[in-house]
Amino acid sequence: MRVTIFGTGYVGLVTGTCLAEVGNDVVCVDIDAEKIARLERGEIPIYEPGLEPLVRANRASGHLRFTTDAAEAVAHAQLIFIAVGTPPDEDGSADLSHVLAVARTVGRTLNRYAVVVNKSTVPVGTADSVRATITAELVARGSEVTFDVVSNPEFLKEGDAVQDCLRPDRIIIGADSARAVEMLKALYAPFNRNHERIVLMDVRSAELTKYAANAMLATKISFMNEIANIAEQVGADVELVRRGIGSDPRIGYHFIYPGAGYGGSCFPKDVKALEYTARQHGHEPRLLAAVEAVNAAQKRKLFALVERHFGADLSGRTIALWGLAFKPNTDDMREAPSRTLLEQLWQAGAKVRAYDPEAGAETARLYGERDDLVLCGQYAALEGADALVIVTEWKAFRSPDFERIRSQLKQPVVFDGRNIFEPKAVEEAGLAYYGIGRGRSV
Ligand code: UGA
């Protein structure tokens, strides 16, 4: 099928590439000419494992093209995907200006029936606004072209985006037109093998499903962080509790890892946006507000542990940080817990030596040159440092040379913000250990 994707961010680029991979003719369009020029040179603007070879292969086969020419892209398409950003406004609501700008462009240029598929995470009711915006433009130019608007939220995770896209666990289609449903079913047929993954529903339910999924996952994390904080107080080990409750299939092992709080471009923004929507419709979202408050406190947890060990004044201290990205396998620093920690450490007068396998450049871009930040290699970060703090659970950090850590640090102490070490192993290596919710180490 002929597909056009507006927006070449994570969702748009990965979706477009995966749709090209199964044989569709895909055009990705973006208003950012610089980004399109880079993509045309084969440069991928994001770090996402497996994406680059797939983009290269599909460009070579002619199934994937990049352009800034929106009119040409609309003329190409039977299906037009909207996959542009919905950043939070100051009040927490989702900013729909990019989504509606695409709708206006579609309305101004559409010349035959197409299905407009909304993949951006958007508040309930946005499909109606997209429809109204396109209709207004069509009416203004006296066009009688028909179209449908469908909600088809995306559930890919950064770092696993290609696999999530090629092997989705569900394909949500929110539509009120049989013709549109048939087209989407045909488009997704290659991804819908072995068992039925398509869940058909009305547009508003599809829009809410996306927020409910992310809010549920965020809730699991904040719940576990709360239990970790209780475990710390009562002298229990949350890692044992986690295994104990995860074995109940109704609870499950996924997404119950306590840590330094959730970050990224989705959970923080989506929980806030859902809260906003709820309030807008007269419902006070008490649970969502608590999820957010627990997370905000948890992002300050690592600093609290450092402070407990060293005292509030950290001037003259140097802290080594392993992990800056909001999670492994990405260079994304949006809402990363490392940022809260960095800023608190600087505030208390400490210097930081930091290492991340991918997010060093992004950290340098965010904070620029400063005396109290040195970005360096994994073990170089320990040189002259008083303590090591693990903020992101990259695989490369899981089995470190503890002897080397102990001999390089001025004070033998490790703060494990993701519970990746066994406290006993660290302590046997002669290092003091602080984890999250591991009461025995308090
Ligand atoms: C999340 C969802 O997992 C995807 O399903 C969704 O499609 C995506 O948002 C989106 O809306 O676009 P992502 O933000 O890439 O994906 O990252 P996650 O892997 O979900 O991690 C989010 C945060 O939660 C990270 O900071 C991670 O460290 C934290 N986390 C995750 C925990 O603290 N504990 C856990 O048990 C799991």
Q: Can you give a write-up of this model?
A:
The chain has 442 residues and is of the alpha/beta class. It folds into two domains: 2-201, Rossmann fold (3-Layer(aba) Sandwich); 235-442, Rossmann fold. 43% of the residues lie in helices and 14% in strands. The strands form three sheets. The protein has a six-stranded parallel sheet with strand order 3-2-1-4-5-6, with helices on both faces. The longest helix is centred in the middle third of the chain and has 32 residues, at 203-234. The protein is elongated. The model has no long low-confidence stretch (mean pLDDT 96). The chain binds uridine-5'-diphosphate-glucuronic acid.
Key phrases:
single chain; 442 residues; alpha/beta; Rossmann fold; six-stranded parallel sheet; 14 strands; 43% helix; 14% strand; elongated; binds uridine-5'-diphosphate-glucuronic acid; oxidoreductase activity; NAD(P)-bd_dom_sf; UDP-Glc/GDP-Man_DH_N; NAD
